[in-house]
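sorry for the late reply, my laptop died twice this morning and i had to redo everyting from scratch. anyway the thing you sent over, i finally got around to it. pasting the sequence first so we're on the same page, its 156 residues, then the predicted structure underneath. double check i copied it right bc i was rushing
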Amino acid sequence: MPEIHPDRRSPAARRSVLAPSSFFAVLGGVFAALGSASAKLTVGAPSAHVGALAQALAPGLPAAATARALAGGLAALSNVLMWLFFTKALRYGQSTARVMMLQTAGNFAATAACGVYVFGDRLALQWWAGAALIAAGLVLVNTKAAPEGPQVPKRD
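ok and here's the structure:
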């Protein structure tokens, strides 16, 4: 992976949503969700399509054991990648809080996608309302508050 030098970017680029720290934070959140979904597949009963995939990859082995082994390996790999991208985001980011906010947002989106497409979950209006409240809270926590009291100009 090419080395990115944050000091060579303009201040506008550092605040951009497409900044490397933002990209790495969202990617870390996606891998965190994939790690959780893989862990659920490791300990739970494999679904029909996961069992079929395991049978296609290793035709001579039992499908359930193969599916669990593959899911366990994917869980471990996803966690390693999550930590890798999280630490890269912290390295290039200007604010730990911003990195955490973006990683949480990426995790929410990927968790929803995994729930719907892998586990067949239906996301109720209550889930969407809760996700919206959490997102609003993250934005509020990361918004700079206006200074209190009268502003005194600085003297040269």
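The chain has a mean pLDDT of 80.
thats about all i looked at so far, will dig more tmrw
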